[in-house]
Amino acid sequence: MTTELLTMLGIGIAIVGLNWRMVHGLRQEMHAGFAELRQEIGALRERVIDLGERVARLAGALDGFMGRREPSQGRTA
Fold first, then answer.
1. Which of 14, 62, 66, 77 sees the fewest Cβ atoms within 10 Å?
2. What is the pLDDT along the chain (77 residues), one digit of tens a residue?
3. Who's near 63: CB < 8 A, 6+ residues apart?
């Protein structure tokens, strides 16, 4: 084999090794980021559910205060 061919093979192997290392590091960072994102979404979901319950309580209290009643299910107007 000629020196030029050996040099090209060496450079090719070096590039593949560097790319593999870079991709591996990026994948680890992405997994960590996704885990953190899942936790934040879970916390946000809990807060939205809590907010919905609070709004429902306020709506019920306001309806009771205003004397509004929902029409019964079996009766027609």
1. 77
2. 799 999 999 999 999 999 999 999 999 999 999 999 999 999 999 999 999 999 999 988 888 878 776 655 555 54
3. 69
